[in-house]
Specification:
about 180 residues, Aminopeptidase, 8 strands, globular, binds coenzyme A
């Protein structure tokens, strides 16, 4: 039987990582119109409100099934959500967890990803069984690469034709953080 996970609330300098609620629909709605986010996440492209609610329900399901911890990234001062941060545990039996994140377009360039990913990582390395955190970044995505490096990830190499993004296979840079070494 799967043991449901309990989502902690994590505090950074400018963000709070917490569970999504229905009040976070606006940030999901905005993400549906982003040119990148729906291609690399389960955010529905140009989804209507029902599709956005289904996205929120899927985040809760991930906890219930033990698949991973899905956090809303909320601005600390207002608690308004600005994005999403995720720790995936599908490979936890092998000591590996994956990190993912996005910030909605209107909230970018203000350090939210930097703070959110650092905050996520600080906690993630304490999750029992995690020996390695992994993250895949397209080589063009400088903002994401800087976010990863700023949180302590190290670029390990290029994975050619690693995954489908929309209709195309794309190369990905693999970044990893090994708590025992980094
Ligand atoms: C990548 C993303 C999360 C960055 O979010 P953000 O809140 O704007 O990032 P921050 O303001 O915290 O900046 C983080 C770093 O990226 C840099 N950065 C931000 N925007 C940048 C841009 N357009 N070009 C180059 N660097 C950029 C910042 O200078 C900072 O680096 P530093 O700490 O070395 O100074 C956001 O652009 C996004 O959601 N993109 C679409 C989804 C995505 O790519 N997710 C990651 C998948 S691997």
């Amino acid at each position: 039987m799967t043991t449901p996970l309990v989502l902690p609330t994590l505090l950074g300098r400018s963000v709070r990582l917490r569970a999504f609620t229905v009040a976070d629909l606006p940030v999901v709605r905005e993400a549906t119109t982003d040119p990148v986010i729906p291609l690399i996440t389960s955010v529905p492209a140009r989804g209507d409100d029902d599709a956005c609610r289904a996205f929120l329900a899927r985040q809760a399901d991930r906890l219930a099934t033990g698949a991973g911890y899905a956090f809303a990234v909320a601005e600390l001062a207002s608690d308004r959500s600005v994005g999403h941060a995720y720790l995936g545990l599908r490979d936890l039996d092998h000591g590996r967890a994956t990190v993912g994140y996005w910030i909605a377009g209107s909230h970018r360039g203000r350090g939210f990803a930097r703070d959110a990913v650092r905050t996520l990582v600080r906690w993630a390395v304490t999750v029992p069984g995690v020996a390695r955190l992994e993250l895949y970044v397209e080589p063009w995505n400088v903002a994401s690469a800087r976010t990863a490096v700023g949180a302590g990830f190290v670029r390990e190499g290029l994975l050619r034709s690693w995954q489908a993004v929309g209709d195309e296979r794309r190369d990905m840079d693999m970044y990893a953080l090994v708590p025992a070494q980094d």
